[in-house]
Amino acid sequence: MAWYTSLVLPVIRWIDAECAHGLALWALKNNLVPRASDAQDVLPILETEVFGRTFANPVGLAAGFDKNAEVPNQMLAHGFGFVEIGSVTPEPQAGNRKPRLFRLYSDRAVINRMGFNNDGAAVVATRLRKRARRGIVGANLGKNKYAADAADDYAKGVAALGPYADYLVINVSSPNTPGLRALQGREPLQKLLSAVLVARDRFAAGVPVLLKVAPDLTDEDKQDIAAVVMALKLDGMIVSNTTIDRPVGLNSYDQDEAGGLSGPPLMEPSTRVLADFYRLTKGTIPLIGVGGVASGKDAYEKILNGASLVQLYSALVYHGPGLVQEIREDLARRLRKDGFASVADAVGAAFPDIGASSPAIDEAVQARGAVVVPAAPAPAAKAKAAPVKAAAPRKKAVRKPAKKEG
Length: 406
Prior knowledge:
Blueprint lengths: L1 H11 L4 H13 L18 E3 L2 E3 L3 E3 L10 H6 L4 E7 L12 E4 L4 E4 L8 H10 L5 E6 L8 H12 L5 E5 L14 H18 L5 E5 L5 H13 L4 E4 L20 E3 L4 H14 L6 E4 L5 H9 L2 E6 L1 H6 L3 H15 L5 H4 L16 H8 L36
Parallel strand pairs: 3-4, 3-13, 4-7, 7-8, 8-9, 9-10, 10-12, 12-13
Antiparallel strand pairs: 1-2, 5-6, 6-11
């Protein structure tokens, strides 16, 4: 693996980002990407059960890497606890004009404006049906760009992919499809998710349905979304998608390109939103934390702030698939160090009043001290709990989004 990281990755980075991504998929399909001999070894402390599914470990591959379900089993073999394919739309579409994928080298980040480019639900469903069924594979669903009825598009996705997926994700938070984020409003969201659940019960009974949200939300947005999710008894949420904000401190050539920003600059804002949703749902809705995860420390921080599972993607651009093994081992070490018997025991440990089931010993104790949870916030000025930092918890100033997609 060392030769792959030191020799192959630096060469790939000289290639256009989207071409390099295609090359990576080709290499994976042809088993040309080396993996550690112990990549699939089970670490009992990392095994966890979420929405009725048993995960070998909580570290998953986020949607966007394997849009068309070409290499889910290969990525599982590299040690991921689960893989999410997509986003997939009912009809195939080319997506936005190229170039549409940019590496921000100095920030170890990525900007994309792909626009739900994919092969369409029928083709992807065939691939999922034919794959050797092992490991957990979720399907992320989107709508076609010019679809007149969003609810109908998502229902079609459920019907096509639901029978072959271990869970389904309703993606209404990509910043690269015009009008999509407007579906996060209370009324349109309730209408959409109600139609999705009817389709799920008809075509894929028992398959968990999750909602993926943006990090660029107002407090009112978050309250409305949480209310809808709890009222409909949704199976889970993914927090969060990429951001349209450009935090202070970016230092890369392409930082002003339009699209969604991912990678380390998203870690703190996405974790803040994760913590907000954990508190708003009182820990009753399983959350998947995504955004900026590049280490075991990052994964642990998400878990302390309420994530039952975590996902990553952008970090693979700079570290390769061997990173997942490093994250798993470091996460297991941190759990043991703080006296947790399992991942589930650590979920939400920063909010003991909500219900972490096991007392934290070291890092999570520090985390608790960094959280300010008001007993009775005044209506005019609501105090907010800051997301905790696993290693050195403290508040950081984060610039609020300057704009929000309509």
